[in-house]
Amino acid sequence: MTKFVFRWAINVVALYAAIMLVDGIELSGKWTGVLWMALIIGLLNALVRPLLKFLTCPLIILTLGLFTIVINTVILMLANWVGQGFNLGVTVDGFWSALLGSLVISVVSVILSVIFRDELKGND
Predict the structure, then answer these.
(1) Minimal CA–CA distance to 99: which of 58, 80, 71?
(2) CA angle 106, 107, 110 (to 5 degrees)
(3) What is the DSSP code (8-state) at residue 24?
C-alpha cells in the first residue's frame, strides 16, 4: 500500500509541476482536482498504456523508443477527457500542451523515483 501511495504522490507532484510549467495545462478548480487527475493518470498508465505499447510496438522499435513520448501524450489527453467528464478543474488545451506536459511529468517522475527508490522497492 505504501508503494501505491508513493507512486501516487510522485504523480501528483509531477502533474503539479506540469501545471506550473506548461501554459496549456491549467488548474481552474480546487487542488483536489490534481489529486484525482493524478489517480486517473496512474490508472490509465496501468490499464491502457500496455495495450497502446503493444499495438504500436513496430513504431516504438522503428523510432528507437521515441514513440513512447506520443503514447505518454495520448495518456495525458485521455486523462484530460476523463477529468473533464468528472469536472476536476484540470484542463489540457491541445496536443502540443499535452506533449510538453507529458515530457515534464516524465522527467519529474523519473527524478522523484530515483530519489525515493528505496521506498518504492518495498514488497507491496
Answers:
(1) 71
(2) 85
(3) T
Q: ∠ CA 56-57-58 to the nearest 5 degrees?
A: 95
pTM, whole model, 2 decimals? Answer: 0.91
Residue 80's closest CA among 37, 30, 46? 37
pLDDT, tens digit, 9 for 90 and up, residues 2-45: 888 889 999 999 999 999 999 999 999 889 999 999 999 999 99
22 residue type, one letter:
V
- Nearest-10 Cα torsion for 57, 59, 64, 70: -100
Report H helices in 1-124: 2-21, 32-47, 49-55, 57-62, 67-85, 95-115, 117-120
* Alpha carbons 104 and 99: distance in angstroms, whole number: 9
Could you give the count of Cα atoms lying within 13 Å of 44 in the half-sphere of its Cβ? 21
Q: How many domains does the chain have?
A: 1
Per the structure, the complete domain to which residue 14 belongs is given by 2-120
Q: List Cβ neighbours of 115 (8 Å cut-off, separation of 6 or more).
A: none
Task: Give the three cell numbers for residue 36.
Answer: 484525482
